[in-house]
Amino acid sequence: MAMSAFEATNLYFRRAADIMQLGQRIEAVFETPSREVKVALTVEMDNGEVRTFEGYRVQHDNSRGPFKGGLRYHPHVDPDEVKSLASLMTWKTAVIDVPFGGAKGGITVDPKQLSTAEVERLTRRFIGKIHDVIGPTLDIPAPDVNTNAQHMAWIYDEYSKLHGHSPAVVTGKPVELYGSLGREAATGRGVAIATRETLKSQGKHVEGARVAIQGFGNVGTFTARFLHAMGAKIVAIADHTGAVRNAAGIDVEKAIAHVKKHGHIAELDVGERFKSDELLFEPVDVLVPAALGNVITMHNVANVRAPIIVEGANGPTDPEANDALERRGVIVVPDIYANAGGVTVSYFEWVQNLQQFTWSEDEVNSKLEAKMVKGFETIHKVARERQVSLRTAAFIVAIGRVGKARVLRGL
Ligand code: NAD
Question: Is 3.90.550.10 the CATH classification of the domain at 33-168+388-411?
Answer without folding.
Answer: no
